[in-house]
Amino acid sequence: MFFSNVIGQEYIQEQLVQAVQQNRLSHAMILLAPEGAGGLPLGLAFAQYLVCEDKQEKDACGKCPSCIKAKQYIHPDIHFSYPVIPRKPGDKPISTDYAAEWREFIGTHPYGNAYDWLQFIGAENKQGNITANECHDIIRKLSLKSFESQYKILLMWMPEYLGNEGNRLLKLIEEPPDNTLFILVAENQEQILATILSRTHLVKINPLPKDVLVNALVERAKAEPAKARQVATIAMGNYREAMYLLQNAEADYHELLRNWLNGIFTGNRAALQEWIEQIASTKMGRENQKQFLRYFINLLEHSLRMQFIDKQLLAFSEEEMDFAAKLNKLINLRQMEQIMELLDNACYYIERNANAKLLFHALSIRMQYIFRNKPLPVV
Predict the structure, then answer these.
(1) Which end of the chain is least crowded, N or C, by CB within 10 Å?
(2) Domains and CATH numbers, the chain
(3) What does the record list as coiled-coil region(s) (predicted)?
(4) pLDDT 10s digits, 108-145
(5) Measured between alpha carbons, how far is 39 from 46 in angstroms, rounded to an integer?
C-alpha cells in the first residue's frame, strides 16, 4: 500500500517519512488511531516505504521488487500479527495460519475493525486472541536474519488482544536485533499492556476531518455530495462507519427531519402519523432509525456551535447551515439539551428492540412539549 492510498493524515505521513530520511526511526512504535481513521493503512504504507529500494520524496516507488511484494503482502521481511481463533477445538493458532485470509481482508477492507476481521474468518461468537504461541513465533521469526531488506518488520494489528502473553515480547522490544522494527497499530490505548506501552514511541492519529471524509466518499465511493455530507456528519471521522452508512442508508435524513419538524410545529396529526408510519417501516430498519436520530443530534450540536464560532469553520452544506440557523431562532440552549437527551435515549431503546411506532409517536409528543416550552409529561 502507498501513502497516497491513505485517506488524509498527511501530517502523520510526513512525520513517518522524515523519521526514515533523517535516521530518527524508533525501533518500536504504536500508531494509535481511532476506528476508521486509517491506522492500518498507514502501517501498511509505512512498512512498504521502509523496504522500498528506491524511496521517493513522499512515498515508495511502487516499481522495485520489494514494493511489488509488499503491495501483495508477501514480502519475506514484513511479518504480520493479528487476532485469530482456533479452527477446531484444541488448536493453538498463530497468525500465519490465516495468512491467505489476512491478505484478502486488508486488500478489500483496510479500514475494517477487529469485528469485521473476526467475522471474515468465521469467528461468529468466538473471542479472537494474539496467543502465547503467536508470541513465541514472533520471537522465532525476528531472531532470523532478514531475507532481502535492510529491515525486519513486525506489523502487529490490534495489540489490545495480546493480554498478559504480551509480556513475553518485552525483552525483544527492549533489545531487538539490529534493524528490527515493531509497528503496532492500535485503537484503544487503555487496553494495551502498560509494559508494552512504556517501551514504545506513541504516535497519535486523529479522526478524519469532515471535509476529508466527504471528499473520500465522493471520489472513492462515488457518493452524491449531499448524501456524503449527511453520512460524514454522522460518522464523526470514521471512514468505516461512513461506508457502512452509505451502503445501508437509502433515506434522505435532512428531508426526513424537515418533514418531522414541520408536522410537530404545525400540529398536523395526519402528516405526523404518515411520517411515523414511514420511519417505523421495516424498509427503514432499526439501524437507519438510529442513524437518523444521530444525524439530528449532530445538527443540534452544530446549531449550538454556530452561536459561538465562525460558521465558515463548520463543514455543513448551505441547506443544513440555514436549517441550523432557523433552529437557533426557535429553541434555546435548555430546549436543545432536552431534545438531545430525548434523542439519545431513543437510540438506546431502538438498540433494545423497542416498538418503533410507539417510540416515535411518544418522541413526537414530547418534542411538541419542548418546542412549546411546556413541562414534559410524566411517563
Answers:
(1) C
(2) 3-206 (3.40.50.300), 250-371 (1.20.272)
(3) none
(4) 999 998 888 988 888 876 788 888 899 999 999 998 88
(5) 11
